[in-house]
């Protein structure tokens, strides 16, 4: 499960221009490394216009605790089951769709503790995950879809990979087209394993 990705601010202005987004770029709250509960950048529609925004990564889900009468709140960062009622209200509304820009993303390296393997889209300084967002008591929050892994990622993470959108699908995703149409593995021949291997400290 992808719980770490990177976003390089110097590449965002070109991507912003490419997708036709308006407004200032909110760099002040953005860090290169994005982890759950961190602020991440998204592009979403506002009044029919694409804008860049910052939100917390992870949609809160309150569950019963192990002790009677207690609750715990988890941050759900990856959308796995599209049919789940927890996600359907966001997935079926165009106003809750977003693009999550990234430069590269990490998957845990098998049997290697906290080491990670990094992946990127070839010949793309910025790509985008298929994201959804909603307001919460802690401000706006987002997550992104996952799907079956492609042959590049499957040996590292056999369960899932993030849904990466082709640029020509950005507008259709934001318009609210059927989410299942996009939940397919990104072609492995268009990706590569990045040389960077990071350890979370």
Features of the shown structure:
201 residues, mainly beta, hypothetical protein yedk fold, 7-stranded mixed sheet, 5-stranded antiparallel sheet, 3 helices, disordered C terminus
Mean pLDDT: 89
Number of domains: 1
Could you give the order of the helices and strands?
Answer: EHEEEEEEHEEEEEEHE
Uncertain stretches: 197-201
Structural classification: mainly beta
Description:
The protein is mostly beta strands and 201 residues long. The protein has one domain: SOS response associated peptidase-like (hypothetical protein yedk fold). It is built from 3 helices and 14 strands. The strands form 3 sheets. Strands 3, 4, 7, 8, 11, 12 and 13 form a 7-stranded mixed beta sheet that branches. Strands 2-1-9-10-14 form a 5-stranded antiparallel beta sheet, with no helix packed on it. A two-stranded antiparallel ribbon has the order 5-6. Strand 11 and strand 12 form a beta hairpin. The longest helix has 8 residues, at 12-19. It is globular.
């Amino acid at each position: 499960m992808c719980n770490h990705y990177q976003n390089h601010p110097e590449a965002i202005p070109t991507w912003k221009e490419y997708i036709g987004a308006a407004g200032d770029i909110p760099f002040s709250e953005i860090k290169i490394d994005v982890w759950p509960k961190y602020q991440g950048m998204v592009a979403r529609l506002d009044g029919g216009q694409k804008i860049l925004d910052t939100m917390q990564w992870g949609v809160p889900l309150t569950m019963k605790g192990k002790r009677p009468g207690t609750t715990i709140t988890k941050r759900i960062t990856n959308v796995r089951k599209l049919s789940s009622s927890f996600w359907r209200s966001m997935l079926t509304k165009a106003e809750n769709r977003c693009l999550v820009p990234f430069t590269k993303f990490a998957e845990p390296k098998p049997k290697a503790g906290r080491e990670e393997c990094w992946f990127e889209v070839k010949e793309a300084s910025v790509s985008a995950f298929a994201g959804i967002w909603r307001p919460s008591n802690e401000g706006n929050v987002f997550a992104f879809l996952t799907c079956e892994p492609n042959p590049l990622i499957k040996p590292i993470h056999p369960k899932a990979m993030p849904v990466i959108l082709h640029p020509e699908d950005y507008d259709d995703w934001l318009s609210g087209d059927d989410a299942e149409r996009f939940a397919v593995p990104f072609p492995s021949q268009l990706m590569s394993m990045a040389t960077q291997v990071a350890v979370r400290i």
